[in-house]
User: Which sequence fits this backbone?
């Protein structure tokens, strides 16, 4: 994954935006990502987004359901919030041309 540097907030208000990591991959790597999350992380929430013009659904999903619905094309994106190695993270997984795009962000303490 390619990390970015912390970004300053517009207008200088508030703490900087934490670093982001980005990657693109195929369905095999998507399956590995979901398997890694299931086996190594404490999953806190999973939300899906079916329409790019609407907010994410409020109904929580399981990792398996989110993975299956991404593969089937029922969702355009999934956000997984989880705890790994004492830190909270958010993975946003989006359908992209020819595969999937992952944006990973460490959640600042207290949020």
Assistant:
């Amino acid at each position: 994954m390619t990390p970015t540097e912390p970004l300053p907030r517009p207008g200088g208000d508030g703490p900087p935006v934490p670093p982001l990591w980005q990657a693109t991959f195929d369905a095999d790597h998507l399956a590995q990502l979901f398997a890694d999350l299931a086996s190594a992380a404490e999953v806190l929430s999973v939300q899906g987004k079916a329409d790019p013009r609407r907010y994410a659904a409020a109904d929580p999903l399981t990792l398996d359901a989110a993975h299956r619905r991404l593969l089937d094309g029922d969702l355009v994106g999934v956000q997984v919030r989880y705890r790994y190695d004492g830190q909270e993270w958010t993975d946003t997984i989006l359908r992209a041309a020819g595969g999937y795009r992952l944006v990973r962000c460490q959640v600042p303490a207290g949020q």
Observations:
- The chain has one domain: 19-106.
- Residues 19-106 form one domain.
